[in-house]
Structures are given as structure tokens and as C-alpha cells.
From TrEMBL:
SUPFAM superfamilies the UniProt entry points to: beta-lactamase/transpeptidase-like
Pfam families, alphabetized: Beta-lactamase
Protein name: CubicO group peptidase (Beta-lactamase class C family)
Domain Beta-lactamase-related per the UniProt entry, residue ranges: 22-393
PANTHER family recorded: BETA-LACTAMASE FAMILY PROTEIN (AFU_ORTHOLOGUE AFUA_5G07500), BETA-LACTAMASE-RELATED
Length: 405
């Protein structure tokens, strides 16, 4: 299904002329060649009050962005997998404090990097086990090979784990590989963005007895009416993936990575594997805004959503996390169970309120949910990496400057 405007912006407290600044702002990104195309969605009180779209989903074929365009949402998969895990938690399948080695025994003897290079690391035993809440909060000590910020990142790359997994490796095999490599830090000691949600996806598989795609389809996508979301698509509406050329920023088609989403993958990545549409992800954000329920279908209790969207760190990401690439500062932003959470809007220098929760994907997609003002927003494009331009904070400013009541 295609997303469409369902209510008048003025009736929901927005100034339509100021909302149009979103269109003009991102149209410039397309006009000067920084973005191939885009789709932005703003809602309030569950109603879509603004759609802004422009440019092309496929530059070479001159195909325009449409309301039903399919997008690789990469790490916007993480909140979906986190919701799936919390559904199992609410069924009494585990406690958030349980060691993951109860279901994934390969993590029972984790080692932690202490010194040395990626070629010859020195390690020490983990002082406590990796627990389920460590996976949900990215405090497990796992990492990503593409960070290029720590010796352990290099170990991931040496083993073929940079932007994905080696050919032929499934999710179980990937988790065995992650368990064989050192942790960046002791579990719970720091925040480090990582493959933790992929491991969480594997946990969902083992606990539920279903593959991750089957579990999400049965318990999340079908109940919410997300018919066009999955780990691959053969739709001709799938947007092409692009990356900026070094030095010039000119858009280069990235079929090497983009083609991975056109057939069922061997490894079902709960951390970054989904393709979706604006309509479908809107359904997901509205379920969150309504604290676990949408159109009579309840996935989570209100208390579970409240727990997920509170800061679980002792400070913000700037003070408790490692410095990583990002197009925005981590000051004033904490992390819950699958989402970033604004804890101090003044420190974060944002017009959004405390309690807003959000995340984005590697191809510059993003969303946020504001339970204070009952506002949600989403942004879709296909430009990798997401740190290329400050699209997310710009959309946030442009949205809130138009909210007058």
C-alpha cells in the first residue's frame, strides 16, 4: 500500500507554509546532486499531515520516487528485532538479565581485548557474562568492522565481517564467529554500536524455534499490516543504492551492496537486513506511539514500550560511548532497548523534547517518535553512508519549527 496524507496539517497544530520548507530544503539536495531522491513523512496524533518527495529512485533509469517505493532501511531493522525480543520477554521466555550463553553457548567463554594489534591481540576473560539487556543496549562489547576505530574492528574485517558476513555464512555461523573474536570492552562497561542486534535476532530464533524472517512475518508484519516489509524484495519499486564519490561527492551507483536485497539472504540480519516502505514503517511507528497497540492489535504492553524508550545508560552516548562516525553529536542523547533517547534537549541542541526516541539506517534513512507531542517523522533515501550529510537533524529542525500548537 502507498502512504498518503490523511489529515489537514493546520488542524493538527502545524503551519503548512512552514512545513513546505521541508520540500524546498531537500529539493536542493536533489537539484545539486547530493541525493538521488527522497521521501519525508510527518504525522501527528496518528494522522499523516505532510509528505515531501522528490528526485529519482533510480537515476540511471530516470524512475521517480513514489509513495510506494521500497527502501533498504538497514539499521531501522534494529527496533523491529528489539520489539520481537521484547515480545518473547513478555511471554516469560527469558529475563533481560539472563546470560545469552543459555541459548547461545558459543558466548560462554567470551574474551575481552586488553592490548596489542588486530593481528596479535592480547585478551582477558570477561568479568561477567553478556546478558540480553547488553544486546538491546549495545553494551555487550561487540562491534562493527566498518567502524575503523579499534583493533577489534580490524579483527572483524580480517575475518570478513565489515559490511555484512562472508558468502555462505548464515546467522548461526555469524554468531559463532562473533563469539570467537574478542570483545571491545567488558560487558556493560561502555556503549559501542555493534552487531549486538544481529545476535539478538539469533536469540529470537533459538528461543522461538522459528527463523527470524518467519517470526517477524507471523508476529510483527502480518499483525500490523506491513505487507511489503521483509529481508528481500523482487519488486521493481526498489530504489537503487548510491554512495558519494571520494573527492567530488558525485553519486555512484552501488549495486555491489544494493543487490544483496533482491533475493533471500543466507544470513538474516536482525541488525540491518530489512527492506520496507513508508506505509509499512509508518504502521510500525504508530504502534510504538500508541505504546504497543495499533488498530486493535497489541504487540507489547504499554509498560514494555515505556521501558524500551527510557535511557538505560548511566549518562549520554557522548560520555558512555566510544567516538564513532555520526552526522550528529551524541551529547544529550542516551540509549534504551533498541532506540536512541533524547535525555537533554538543551545539551543536544534540538527543538525536539526529552523522551523522543529514534534511530536510522546506513543508507541515510531515519525515523523518530515523539510521545510528548504525538509526532512521528520518517525520512527515506538511499545514500550510503548515513554520515555523508546532516539530513536527520535538519529534518528534525524543519519539522518542529512548523509545529505551532
Amino acid at each position: 500500500m502507498s502512504i498518503k496524507i490523511t489529515a489537514d496539517a493546520a488542524e493538527h497544530g502545524f503551519d503548512a507554509e512552514r512545513l513546505a520548507r521541508i520540500d524546498r530544503h531537500f529539493a536542493r539536495y536533489v537539484e545539486d546532486g547530493r541525493l538521488p531522491g527522497y521521501l519525508a513523512v510527518v504525522t501527528r496524533h496518528g494522522e499523516v499531515v505532510h509528505l515531501a518527495q522528490g528526485g529519482l529512485r533510480d537515476v540511471e533509469a530516470a524512475l521517480p520516487v513514489g509513495a510506494d517505493t521500497r527502501w533498504r532501511i538497514y539499521s531501522m531493522t534494529k527496533p523491529v528485532t528489539s520489539v520481537a525480543a521484547m515480545m518473547l520477554f513478555e511471554r516469560g521466555e527469558f529475563e533481560l538479565t539472563d546470560p545469552i550463553s543459555r541459548w547461545l553457548p558459543e558466548f560462554a567463554a567470551a574474551r575481552v581485548y586488553a592490548k596489542g594489534s588486530s593481528a596479535a591481540p592480547g585478551t582477558v576473560p570477561a568479568t561477567e557474562p553478556i546478558r540480553i539487556w547488553h544486546l538491546l543496549t549495545h553494551t555487550a562489547g561487540l562491534t562493527y568492522g566498518f567502524h575503523h576505530a579499534h583493533a577489534v574492528d580490524g579483527i572483524y574485517r580480517r575475518n570478513g565481517y565489515e559490511w555484512g558476513v562472508p558468502p555462505g555464512v548464515d546467522l548461526a555461523g555469524a554468531c559463532e564467529a562473533y563469539a570467537s573474536m574478542p570483545l571491545v570492552h567488558q560487558p556493560g562497561a561502555e556503549w559501542n554500536y555493534s552487531v549486538a542486534t544481529d545476535v539478538l535476532g539469533r536469540l529470537v530464533e533459538v528461543v522461538s524455534g522459528q527463523t527470524l524472517d518467519a517470526f517477524l512475518a507471523e508476529h510483527v508484519f502480518r499483525p500490523l499490516g506491513m505487507a511489503d516489509t521483509g529481508f528481500w524484495t523482487d519488486s521493481d519499486q526498489l530504489a537503487a543504492l548510491y554512495s558519494p564519490a571520494p573527492g567530488t561527492g558525485r553519486l555512484l551507483r552501488n549495486d555491489a551492496m544494493g543487490a544483496a536485497f533482491t533475493s533471500r539472504p543466507v544470513c538474516l540480519s536482525g541488525g540491518g537486513g530489512l527492506v520496507s516502505t513508508a506505509y509499512d514503517y509508518h504502521r510500525f511507528t504508530q504502534m510504538l506511539l500508541r505504546r504497543g497497540e495499533l488498530d486493535g492489535v497489541r504487540l507489547l504492553s504499554p509498560r514494555a514500550v515505556d521501558l524500551m524508550t527510557r535511557n538505560h545508560l548511566p549518562g549520554d552516548l557522548e560520555s558512555f560511548g566510544r567516538p564513532l562516525f555520526a552526522e550528529t553529536s551524541y551529547v544529550g542523547v542516551g540509549f534504551g532497548l533498541g532506540f536512541s533517547v533524547t535525555v537533554d534537549p538543551v545539551a543536544a541542541k534540538t527543538l525536539g523534547p526529552a523522551g523522543e526516541y529514534a534511530w536510522g539506517g546506513a543508507a541515510s534513512t531515519a525515523f523518530w517518535v515523539d510521545p510528548v507531542n504525538e509526532v512521528t517523522a520518517m525520512f527515506f533515501t538511499q545514500l550510503l553512508p548515513s554520515s555523508t550529510y546532516p539530513l536527520r537533524p535538519q529534518l528534525r529542525t524543519l519539522t518542529y519549527q512548523s509545529l505551532l500548537a
